[in-house]
Specification:
alpha+beta; nine-stranded antiparallel sheet; globular
């Protein structure tokens, strides 16, 4: 009887110890899974590369001509007071027919065509409207290269080309301006209609 009592008394402790080991196992497993993760798997050689949408770059002679022709066709007008060419859109202040000062604003995007903006207004000071056909857009690539070289903005977040309207007040002729902008600074240059750079304004460090 004494031997039986001793065996019965020891078994619960042994069984409890066994349950404790079992209960501790998930924690040990969990602690192992919290270690450094392995490197991500390499993509399969047979996997198809994801398609990326290619956006048209309008800062090219062909891109600008396409945008300008679309604006002329949509508005029925050839004169503007301002034209701004960005990589993904072109904005223009198109003169109201019969006026040398009043304009309506339009924006061209390759995927949406020409849309009229809510902004309208009038030219200020001595600014004069210009013909959208007055420019040889083939000079733009050379100006963009010059801007990249000399404007001291190595990694721009924005690049754009502006038409600089003639201004009788300041005696400035019709021309172009090229800008390079990052999060901190802006650099730009001006040029005549033949693409000759007239002034440089590099960004300051």
């Amino acid at each position: 009887m004494l031997a039986g009592v001793l065996v019965w008394t020891l078994l619960p402790d042994g069984t409890h110890s066994g349950r404790g080991d079992t209960a501790d196992a998930p924690e040990a497993s969990s602690s192992r899974t919290k270690g450094p993760t392995s490197a991500p798997p390499r993509p399969s050689r047979s996997a198809t590369a994801p398609r990326t949408d290619t956006k048209a770059d309008l800062l090219t002679p062909a891109g600008i001509r396409t945008a300008v022709e679309a604006i002329k066709a949509a508005t029925g007008a050839d004169r503007a007071g301002d034209l701004a060419v960005y990589e993904d859109h072109v904005s223009a202040e198109v003169m109201v027919k019969g006026s040398d000062t009043k304009y309506d604003s339009y924006t061209y995007r390759p995927d949406r065509g020409v849309e009229k903006d809510i902004t309208s207004g009038s030219l200020i000071g001595g600014e004069r409207p210009f013909s959208l056909g007055a420019f040889d857009w083939d000079v733009v690539p050379g100006l963009l290269k010059r801007a990249q070289k000399d404007l001291n903005v190595s990694r721009p977040t924005m690049r754009y080309v502006l038409v600089r309207p003639a201004d009788d007040t300041f005696g400035t002729p019709l021309g172009l301006a090229v800008y390079r902008v990052d999060d901190h600074v802006t650099g730009y240059l001006t040029a005549d209609l033949k693409g000759k750079v007239t002034r440089l304004f590099p960004a300051e460090d």
